[in-house]
Amino acid sequence: MGDKVALVTGGIGGIGTEVCKRLASQGRRVVAGYLPSEEKAALAWQGQRRQEGFDIAIVPGDVSCFDSSSEMVRQVHERLGSIDILVNCAGITRDKTLRNMERQHWQAVLSTNLDSVFNVTRQVLDGMIERGFGRIVSISSVNGQKGQFGQTNYSAAKAGVHGFTMALAQEVADKGITVNTVSPGYVATDMTQAIPEEIRHVIVSQIPMKRMAQACEVAHVVAFLSADETAYITGANLPVNGGLYMC
Fold first, then answer.
1. pLDDT higher than threshold 70 for residue 2
2. Which residues have a catalytic role annotated?
3. Would the pLDDT of 239 be above 60?
4. 155-161, Cβ contacts within 8 angstroms, sequence gap of 24 or more
5. What is the pTM of this model?
6. How is the chain split into domains, by residue range?
7. How far is C-alpha 87 from the geometric centre of its chain's CA atoms?
8. For residue 135, what is the enclosing H or E element?
9. Which CATH architecture group holds 5-187+214-240?
């Protein structure tokens, strides 16, 4: 696998953490992106990873902002070198029915979950083309495939992530670059554990496997798609949803 550099946006989150660890285990030089306002938490996160035996760099950047994304990538280039693998993992929710959704709820989710994919990918693409190698993996969602009550903003953004993936995959298919999407279902993270227990039971009862995914299971699929050997899969969306949605 070599010493290729991998940037994981939202790297200190639940899924991002497992992605960083999995890529580091493959021998990648991994850097986790975090919001500048979360520096204290990011440093603590980095310390925890070191205790686990993972040497993972961290870099600040607001991926909803093009200029901040540019500066984040510049810092990675300066410290570690050119980015060979990009995992677009940053995401937020602001759930409301459309009748109750404020404009800022819509804009925040679209900016963080969809605009970010453009903002960061745009910064690394030219270098990947020049070197003739790249792996771009973006985290979508089962709700981007099937929709979800109270998530018009999130479902629209996550559907857009895969639309972006399919279009870009065609643009760079002959450049040694693959572009793919992973669409998790419900994952056991701090965010889902904060859902009231009775609601979690209802959610799990609707999943054929009768459990939520572990974040490491999502990370395994991301690592598969970012492998050097996975050179003939592009424009694909791999679901990790326990059978919740099949198509």
1. no
2. 154
3. yes
4. 156/110, 156/114, 157/109, 157/110, 157/113, 157/114, 158/113, 158/114, 158/183, 160/110, 160/114, 161/88, 161/113, 161/114, 161/117
5. 0.96
6. 5-187+214-240
7. 5
8. strand 134-139
9. 3-Layer(aba) Sandwich (3.40)
